[in-house]
Amino acid sequence: MLNNIGIPGLLLIAVVVLVLFGRGKVSGLMGEVGKGITAFKKGVNDGTKEIEDEAAKVDEEASETVEKDKV
Question: What sections of the protein cross the membrane (predicted)?
Fold first, then answer.
C-alpha cells in the first residue's frame, strides 16, 4: 500500500501537514522527536555497557573459581 508513495506524494503530505498545523508546531514536534531519538540511543548504549560489565564480572568470578579449584 505504501510502496506507491513517491517524492511527489511525500511533498504533498508535508505541505498538508504544514498547512494544518503550522510551522511552529511542526518544528517543535520535530525537536521533540530528535530528543526522543537521542534518549533512545543513549539508553541502548547504557544497556549495552551494563551487559558487557556484567559479562566481564561473571568471567572474572569464573576465573577466580577455576584458580581456587587448581590449588
Answer: 6-22
